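Support reply, case 0932

Customer input (verbatim):
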Amino acid sequence: MVLGKSSGWFSVLEYLAEGSLGSVMIGLVFGMASLFWLRFIYNDTLTDFSLALTVSYIAYYTAQEEAEASGILTLVALGMVFAMSKDTHRAGGKQSLHEFWEMVAYIANTLIFILSGVIISQSIFSIGNFDDDTGRSWGYVFLLYIILQVARTIVVFAFYPALCYFGYGLNWKEAIIIIWSGLRGAVGLALSLSIKGASGDPKYLSAETGAMFVFLTGGSVLLTLIINGSTSQLLLSLFGMDALSESEETMVNYAKNQLLRKAEEFSRICSGSNNPFDWMTVGGYATCIKDVCEDTVWPPCTTNHGYLEIDDMKTMRVCFLKATREAYWSTFNEGRITKSTISVLMESIEEAIDLAKQGLHDWNYISTHLKFPGYYKFFSGRVCPPWLTRWFVLKKLQDSCHICSAFIHAHRIARQLLLDYTGDNGNAAIVVGESEVEELEARNFLENAKNSMPEIIHQTESRQVTFSMLKSLDECLTDMEKDGILTEKVLLHVHDLLQNDLEKLSRSPPSVRIPKPGDVLSIHPSLGNLSPAIQSDLERSVTSMLKTPDCALYTKGSKMTSVWLIGNGSVRSKRSPFPIHYPVDSTYPRGSILGLYEALVGKPYLCDMVTDSVALCIEIKLESIMSVLSRGNGVEELLWKECIIVVSKLLAPDMFKKFSMQEVRSIVDERSVMNTFSSQEVIETSHHSINFLLSGCLRDQSTGQVIECPAMLPCSILSESIPSACTNITGESSGSYSYSKYRVVTPARIVRIDISAA
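Our regenerated output:
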């Protein structure tokens, strides 16, 4: 369009696609190729430098010159690939590479200024009529400078109300500093140089116009550097914005006192020297601590206790958070955590510093990143391949555990440092207390992860222990090198072997071993007692699924199709199975078999079952359960006894929630008796036991009401804790029971659990 060509919608879209999508694709291709190359390199800083510089230049040249795409977008895509990969520039090479690119940027910035000056000078001497318009050209430069300042003023004050309300806030002094400190530099000069390079055709852009672009840009840059740059500090001093606050003054005095203590320690060491020296000469150069020195002569002597006294709670919390941040960086530089983990931890520190007046809030930010996003439920569905589900879910859980471990480690270090520097300070004690509360929440998360998926904790701990061991071996090798025990050839050989082990740990950390369905079935207390042939048939027919939290296994009233064995994690019940409203908050941990009762009686699902954590769920089809029941040999009795565990927690949650899964199973095994009754039989319940109607139908002899399965028959031992409405009654409920005799309407199965000693 600039060159006078007409373009339709299709050509515009084609140009945008080539310039944007094409550039991104080129960057991705070069990035993936570089990562593949880096897989064969470990802790080689020189190769990292060469590869980063070469790939960046070749990618830019390919996109800009050969593919006629955007070289800048290509480099952005290339950098994103490097940033998102955990295999990019490991160990100490990260810091060296950062310093390398800083030096390259400085050199490029300097070259742009030099090149701009040369081109401006060359243009002045090459354009014949430039001398005649010198005054006008400089007038345009000053006019452009004024326009830039006015434009920046308009923009800042136009958004001033929004800047005051959102983010960090803004006052009028800061707004003036923002306006005045807007310097122009290398970016503007680089753009003007590109225009100068495209000039030369009188039809579109003459050489004189291109030279004027460079001259005006260079002039505005020169004026902003000379005028704005040299007076910004004066403006800060005029507004009092460079003055130290009261808390900062306290820190300055503390730092000086620490230096004074160090000088006193040094003076004691030097006092025993036989070589004469003049203490007054030495003290004359230590003017930084003279104002806190109590003596007028040297060597100095101080009686200061050496503790930092901070009365401002915000400053105290900021100091603690900065110490935590340094602990995070130390852990990251040692290779204990990945780049994605350190990113979340650093963001939590920045967020907490902004909210330091209200308390320590770094855990609040971290806790939001520990939760599984809603879209993770897609991976728990049947449409997603199991291997992909395991990769995404386990990766998320591993990262969460690494974040919590690093959080606990850093907070411990920061608390100790805070106490070392502040001593017995009331504000420090408050901050330490807030940190301990947050650490407790992090520990609870790790404990829940350990209970739901212990393999994750084992993998995390194994990786940490392995890394610590290899680092200790590296330190031992360094000590032997310093002592000169090993020859250079032997040292290099052992060092390469150790680096190979570290590389193996970094690229292939210990994997998480998820139990196989056959292993879960074989170790189950009930299913493990089945014959090997039955276990083999079940193993071939089951499906293993890894479910994320709040993922529904089945819903109340839906058709019974599968039985779920919980291999790891926990599941909770929702929505009462009774006609009336009754809260159901029972949790079913590892080893629970859900839906087994419904399969045995042929009923729809009684309630909603949702995962309470990451859970390994083994799905057993209804056909497989029916096939197992047909085998006989006590299988039906074993399955009925197993389903009592879930039914008891479902029908009597207040009674059984205080027992663990193992305790409930022990109570059912040792204190339960199951009986079947024919029609018209009369049964009487015990007042010291719980009776569950598992199948069939009963009629209350006193009220005539019909009780259908599943139901809990009332007893005196539960009269205070379990509402009488817990029974599944057809007809009007009287709200109390004075009789415990029932007549069997249809053949019934009743289990009695003696809990008098429980």
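We compared this against your earlier run and they match. Two observations from our side: Confidence is low (pLDDT under 50) at residues 579-583, 716-739. The chain has six domains: 122-239, 246-292, 313-452, 468-507, 517-651, 672-754. Please reopen the case if you see a mismatch on your end.
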